[in-house]
Specification:
Oligomer: single chain
Strand order of the largest sheet: 3-4-2-5-6-1-7
Radius of gyration: 26 Å
Number of strands: 17
Bound molecules: adenosine-5'-diphosphate, zinc ion
Distance between the termini: 66 Å
CATH topology of the largest domain: Rossmann fold
CATH class of the largest domain: Alpha Beta
Number of helices: 22
Number of domains: 3
Strand content: 15-25%
Helix content: 40-55%
CATH superfamily of the largest domain: P-loop containing nucleotide triphosphate hydrolases
Largest sheet: 7 strands, parallel
CATH architecture of the largest domain: 3-Layer(aba) Sandwich
Length: 517
């Protein structure tokens, strides 16, 4: 009998969905993933945050004899899932370093005697030869690897401890292996499949469309606290997450917001486990409305009524952005994502990537490109939702009508001429410049004459364009890849010419730039 004939079909999966989980029907591409697993195939599933990845392995594990092995990176998440499953009468357990020998012994016994449906394990635990040896003699019916993008160096959150997972296929050659993630671009997807040695996997990539999310990017003008607090005033009492680039930043912002009467708390990897747990609990139960956090907060946070995600500092890749913003509005009700940025932020992001240790040059250059691509979207004039979909290789479809670019009253206007003026100036100045200086140069503003005031481009835009427009045009030059943001001396944001081919095209008029004005 072939695997397929023996496989319990989707009707049985539906029955479990109703009886055990109490849901009416499968959501999105859950049924597609489950069918593939039930047919014995390896699967790579890219489903958006909140898309219901867990059921994709939980249901097949319940349908097949033996138990499903789930590898998940965070112990806290595993506990949540295990408790939720136990409450539904599913025999689930997790194996981790906090348990004593007796507890572990009980779990191994249950696994051996068929008293277990799902076993959760950390990637580190699977690296242990003892654990691997035990598991190899037990009836594992599938292996699911959650947050699978962590195995890829091309992903946005590579974790060395995930490398051990390259062996799962060899350990359990006869059962389906599943890799699940919320965000992975093309390269990352291929890399996940290769790193896990998936056997001719079925790839299921679900819609990145989240129609209930309205997306907005705001150029920071003054202190970000003021702008954030103005935003929050309009939705007092709503639950939300604010992401900051630094640990220190989270504490400061949480304190400032608290002083202004908001219910906010901070979360980052520098806090003790107890404090983190307390604060997470306060947020999950609604005691604290606003979580001000670094990216340490989030993986798998399953709070349905998060109404907004604010980035006080921008993330440095589209994957990270989408994963973080995706934590808003999981209940399907309207929610917003507001990302603050300043042009210099890209320079900082690139610099942070350069300082990252344990990373090869190839990996760094991939991450830097991701940062540049993301900033191109931030600065560009296109519909945000379309930009996200395009990035993840999905048919872009119509404009969303609800993002800042769709709602902007500005008209898409050709700005090739002012762009040529600025680029010509940058070229003649023969070296990178601060944005403000460059704009002042083409406007002919100066305190004291020097060699730059004798260059032909000095004052070239005077009387034709104003500083605000020129600054905006510089953004478009950056979005198009003609110039790049850098840090001079490691601290001063500047722009430099980046691509001489694009520059030539711009001068010839073959590359046209447009901006919403
Ligand atoms: P993620 O893909 O982010 O890991 P989860 O598996 O945590 O998502 O599921 C998100 C939420 O959606 C959970 O509360 C889950 O119980 C719920 N859910 C999953 N599948 C369905 C479904 N078919 N119908 C209704 N709710 C579902
Ligand atoms: Zn839009």
């Amino acid at each position: 009998m072939s695997l397929l004939e023996r496989a319990p079909d989707l009707a049985a999966a539906n029955e479990i969905l109703h009886r055990v989980f109490g849901y009416e029907q499968f959501r999105g591409k859950q049924a597609e993933v489950i069918s593939a697993v039930l047919a014995g195939r390896d699967v790579l599933a890219v489903l958006p945050t909140g898309g219901g990845k867990s059921l994709c392995y939980q249901i097949p594990a319940l349908l097949r004899p033996g138990f499903g092995l789930v590898i998940s990176p965070l112990i806290a998440l595993m506990s949540d899932q295990v408790n939720a499953l136990l409450a539904r009468g599913v025999k689930a357990a997790k194996l981790d370093s906090t348990q004593d020998l007796n507890q572990r012994g009980d779990i191994w016994d249950a696994a051996r005697t068929g008293e277990l449906d799902l076993l959760y394990l950390s990637p580190e635990a699977l690296a242990s030869p003892f654990v691997r040896d035990k598991l190899s003699r037990l009836p594992v019916n599938l292996v699911a690897i959650d947050e699978a993008h962590c195995i890829s160096q091309w992903g946005h959150d590579f974790r060395p401890e995930y490398r051990a997972l390259g062996q799962v296929k060899a350990l359990f050659p006869d059962v389906p292996a599943m890799a699940l993630t919320a965000t992975a671009d093309h390269v990352t997807r291929a890399d996940i499949c290769a790193a896990l040695h998936l056997d001719n996997p079925v790839e299921v990539v679900a819609g990145f469309d989240r129609p209930n999310l309205s997306l907005r990017f705001v150029r920071r003008k003054g202190a970000v606290l003021k702008e954030i607090s103005a935003l929050l005033q309009r939705q007092k009492g709503a639950s939300g997450i604010i992401y900051c680039g630094s640990r220190d930043g989270t504490e400061k912002l949480a304190r400032a917001l608290t002083l202004e009467g908001f219910s906010a708390t901070a979360y980052h990897a520098g806090l003790s486990a107890t404090i983190r747990e307390d604060r997470l609990k306060a947020f999950m139960t609604g005691k604290a409305k606003i979580m001000v956090a670094t990216i340490a907060f989030g993986m798998g946070i399953n709070k349905a009524d998060v109404r907004f995600v604010i980035h006080a500092d921008p993330p440095s890749s589209m994957e990270a952005y989408w994963q973080e913003v995706g934590r808003a509005g999981r209940d399907g009700l309207p929610a917003s994502g507001v990302c603050f940025y300043a042009p210099g932020d890209l320079g900082w992001a690139v610099r942070r990537l350069t300082l990252r240790e344990n990373e090869g040059a190839a990996e760094q250059s991939v991450q830097k490109q991701k940062a540049r691509d993301f900033f191109a979207t931030v600065l560009g004039p296109d519909c945000r939702r379309q930009a996200v979909k395009r990035y993840f290789g999905e048919e872009a479809g119509g404009t969303c009508g609800s993002c800042d670019n769709c709602l902007s009253r500005g008209r898409l206007t050709d700005v090739t001429e002012p762009a040529q003026m600025l680029m010509s100036a940058l070229y003649r100045l023969n070296g990178p410049r601060g944005r403000k200086k460059l704009v002042e140069h083409v406007l002919g503003k100066t305190d004291k004459p020097d060699y730059t005031t004798r260059i032909k481009t000095f004052g070239i835009a005077k009387g034709q364009y104003d500083a605000a427009l020129l600054t905006h045009v510089l953004d478009q030059c950056e979005a198009a890849g003609v110039i790049a943001e850098e840090l001079y001396d490691g601290k001063m944001p500047i722009v430099a010419l980046r691509d001489s081919d694009l520059l030539k095209q711009l001068f010839k008029g073959d590359l046209k730039l447009a901006a919403k004005i």
